[in-house]
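agent> fetching stored inputs for the manganese (II) ion docking request
agent> found them:
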Amino acid sequence: MIIICKPDATEEDIQHIIQKAEKLGLRVNISKGVERTVLGFIGPEDVLRVIPLEVFPGVDQVLPVLAPYKLVSREFQKENSVIQIKDDVRIGGEKIAVIAGPCSIESYEALLSVAKKVKESGATILRGGAFKPRTSPYDFQGLGEEGLKYMKDVGEEVGLATVTEVMDPRHVELVARYVDVFQIGARNMQNYTLLQEVGKTKKPVLLKRGMSATVKELLMSAEYIAAKGNFKVAVCERGIRTFETATRNTFDINAIPVIKQMSHLPVVADPSHGTGRWGLVSSIAMAAVAAGCDALIVEVHENPEEALSDGAQSLTPGNFKALMAQLQAVAQAVHRTF
Ligand code: PEP
Ligand code: MN
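agent> prediction call returned; pasting tokens
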């Protein structure tokens, strides 16, 4: 574990922390920098967890060096990662990226129409699934490669970057030919073969949190991708399974600042899957922006009633436009822009 002291930490503050740790039987390594002191504790981490080091005077950050995720950890890289997607489209940094589009690609015309509208409202990345991970094998499974072609054509025609889900390691090359960003869906977050395959590419990856995965497990999955050499990973909070049944999932708002503390990776928020109900999407989108997300991914459909998947949580283009307007003030309050 590493403790980074505040620049104005006094010698007394530092000695106090050291004494506490030594009392617990830990060895302390002191590294005095020009600006601040960094304390490294060697020994069983569990012992340190019993004391809330974060609240000690003079403590800025407490970093678990023994964290199994290394490359994606905040201690590995202090600065926030910014992922270059295409032209001036990025995820990370002051500007919040907006990814919008239908849950599934249904037809060329429908995709084109919704793409134009979401772009007009401020989206820079078009979403849409061609391979759909459906709970029932009898539900619409997506248009496959035909859908990918629509995505590429519409993206180019409208001037939007594109993201789509890749479900199968055998499809990585195929999907890479058509879109700018791979999405790894919640159900595949721990498909390590798939993670390694996208890790071998240079394409950005939007990695969604598994519905029963901890933040640590999410970061371990991100580490799988980074360990293969692809550092262009954004992680996505999309709601988790809890005992609550009033909503499809429980959007874990904590995950946003927690991930920002633990990792330098950009954090994407998905209020659509996070709630499962279109009427809740704007509240959670605003909360996510306030909590510090770097991007939003929102499902938008011209006619949600007729959507082949996730209609209940899809915004109409009109509602999406209203949401974008609503979000401006929230972004401004937290010193971000769209
Ligand atoms: C989706 O984005 O449409 C999707 C299937 O998401 P998730 O993997 O989060 O369920
Ligand atoms: Mn969906």
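agent> quick read of the result: The mean pLDDT is 93.
agent> awaiting further instructions
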